[in-house]
Write a structure and sequence with these properties.
Layout lengths: L11 H8 L2 E3 L2 E3 L4 E2 L4 E2 L14 E4 L2 H9 L1 H12 L3 E4 L8 E6 L8 H6 L1 H13 L2 E7 L2 H11 L14 E6 L4 E7 H25 L2 E6 L4 H9 L2 H8 L4 E5 L4 E7 H17 L1 E6 L2 H7 L2 H13 L4 E6 L2 E6 L2 H12 L11 H7 L1
Antiparallel strand pairs: 1-2, 3-4, 5-7, 6-7, 8-10, 9-10, 11-13, 12-13, 14-16, 15-16
Helix pairs in contact: 6-7
Length: 360
């Protein structure tokens, strides 16, 4: 079929042309009005084409993800639910990641694939989150000295299960956080919460009676978290509140010493972990050549001076080609990243023949 366009200068002539039969060399012509603004002729229909949605990244509570990765029954259940929405799931490879990836399984062979693809993102995400909302997470902080005893008692707890769900709830112990998590189906979590809470309370009360004056060394925090506690003046704040307690932070050794009456030391540890959990961080790749420069004394002094001038509390470190910055909240972090990242720059200097010998 040959398509020809004829431009008619006066619009009143168009209807007259369309109302008559048009022939060329004895052959009947199909004449239709063409609309440049929409790029097609009158009467044309637009064929909707199938476009497969891109993978969708969804963030979820990291403890819920860990639970599903350990619980084959519940993992299969969420995968079956996603299958009904034409989706598969890729679980995070790293054990400390809160991102899962949903993949679309639609193809042109699926009935109504165009319409399904249009709503796939919303439907897949809603289906995943509906399942995750059936789960709940409860946590208990346990001081280091009591964690072993609490763990031993928890091992004696029997967890109720059913034929439909042999793994309705789990107890996850995170030693580096000094926390115990209860994760699983909401009603099962609620029932177990009371038992675990009573165990933690009884052991901590017994331990408190056994000890009067204690010295605790905290070495499980990340180096940058220890530095941030010092920058945020955590020791002086606690000593103002509890004058009888001694707190020393040694950032070089990544060590915090807390010495005082057991109950107060326990309270300070809880306050410390709560404060630590509020800190925010950002990390990004930097040239390896700049890693040592960021941590050099002159640059440190320059950055500290700039941060103080802007009344920003922040710390930084370089690890494996990354610059990591930590601060009190997102607004302060954004400003800190801008100041710190712009404090070091790399540029090429063109050497002349005469100056080249002096740097060789």
């Amino acid at each position: 079929m040959v398509i020809k366009y004829v431009k008619i200068l006066h619009f009143l002539v168009v209807d007259k042309v369309l109302s008559k039969d048009q022939k060329l060399d004895g052959r009947q012509l199909e004449v239709r009005r063409y609309f440049p603004c929409i790029g097609r002729a009158e009467g044309d229909t637009v064929e909707r084409r199938f476009k497969k949605p891109n993978p969708l990244i969804v963030k979820e509570n990291i403890q819920k993800i860990k639970f599903l990765q350990r619980s084959s029954a519940n993992k299969v259940a969420v995968e079956k639910q996603l299958y009904m929405c034409h989706a598969t799931i890729t679980w995070p490879a790293a054990y400390d990641s809160e991102d899962v990836v949903l993949h679309c399984t639609l193809s042109e062979d699926v009935k109504y694939c165009v319409k399904l693809a249009k709503d796939w993102n919303d439907n897949a995400k809603a289906s995943f989150q509906d399942f995750m909302n059936t789960l709940d997470v409860e946590s208990f902080f346990v001081v280091s000295d009591n964690l072993k005893k609490v763990t031993e008692e928890l091992s004696k707890i029997s967890i109720d299960n059913t034929i439909d769900n042999p793994e309705p709830v789990a107890i996850i112990i995170q030693r580096h956080e000094n926390k115990i998590y209860i994760v699983g189906i909401k009603r099962n979590v609620l029932g177990l919460k009371t038992k675990v809470g009573q165990i933690v309370k009884d052991i901590q009360e017994a331990s408190q009676k056994e000890k009067t004056w204690v010295k605790v060394e905290v070495t499980m925090l990340k180096s940058i978290e220890t530095k941030m506690l010092l920058a945020d003046k955590f020791p002086s704040q606690m000593q103002d509140k509890f004058p009888e307690v001694k707190i020393n932070i040694h950032p070089t050794n990544n060590e915090i010493e807390i010495e005082g009456v057991y109950s107060v030391v326990n309270t300070i540890q809880i306050e410390m972990y709560k404060l630590k959990d509020t800190f925010v961080r950002n990390e990004f790749q930097i040239p390896h050549a700049t890693m040592a420069i960021f941590m050099s004394r002159p640059v440190k002094e320059y950055i500290v001076k700039k941060l103080k001038h802007e009344k920003i509390i922040a710390v930084w470190e370089t690890v494996n080609g990354k610059l990591i910055v930590m601060s009190k909240h997102d607004t302060m972090l954004s400003k800190a990243v801008d100041i710190i990242s712009k404090s070091v720059a790399i540029s090429k200097v063109q050497l002349t023949k005469e100056s080249r010998s002096s740097v060789q």
